Amino acid sequence: MKGLLRRLRGLAGFALLAIIVASGVAYYQQRDVPKDRAPAFAARTLDGDLLDLQRMTADGPVLLYFWATWCGYCRAVSPVIDDLAGDYQVISVALQSGDGAQVEKYLEDKALDFPTVNDPDGAISHAWGVRVTPTIVIVGSDGKVSWVTSGTTTKWGLEARLAMTD
Question: Are 135 and 158 in contact (CB under 8 A)?
Fold first, then answer.
């Protein structure tokens, strides 16, 4: 019994250390992403539609999704974002994923239909301080960044964050 308790304490200590390290890495990766007022963002999607973040926030929160065709984690997160795009305002930014035709083909092959702005040279992502993909930013109706995350996430987690954002 004492051996089991010792192992459980060791496991709990390891889990706590892993959480601390993961939190530190996430903080480091997101250090340049705006934490207060969202930068101006107006760009045309691959379909030619103009997306203006500041105008969109007047209708409620907006989820910005920075992703790439070469990103392994994005393959798991993109379908979640695609599901959310039916009920929430979404702007996706394809970071350094080729020209518009290449990004369109990728979206078609993966059956993804969220509004996408191509960022072939990374200028938009750089302006937002995005260093890793996927990065998700939620901007509230007040135009302020309310939440930022990098890496994998769940649909219910994002829905909860969007619901808590005014």
Answer: no
Q: Which of 62, 74, 77, 117 is catalytic?
A: 74
Q: Is 151 helix (H, G, I), strand (E, B) or coil?
A: coil
What does pTM read for this prediction?
0.80
Whole-number Å distance between alpha carbons of 125 and 132: 9
Q: CA-based angle 140:146:29, to the nearest 5?
A: 135
74 noted as active-site residue: yes
Q: Is 71 a catalytic residue?
A: yes
Tokens for 164? 């808590």
62, 63, 71, 117: the active-site residue: 71
Q: What is the DSSP string of 12-71?
A: HHHHHHHHHHHHHHHHHHTTTS-SSBPPP-EEE-TTS-EEEHHHHGGGS-EEEEEE-TT-
Query: What integer is the mean pLDDT of 19-30?
Result: 47
Question: What pLDDT does residue 17 have?
Answer: 53
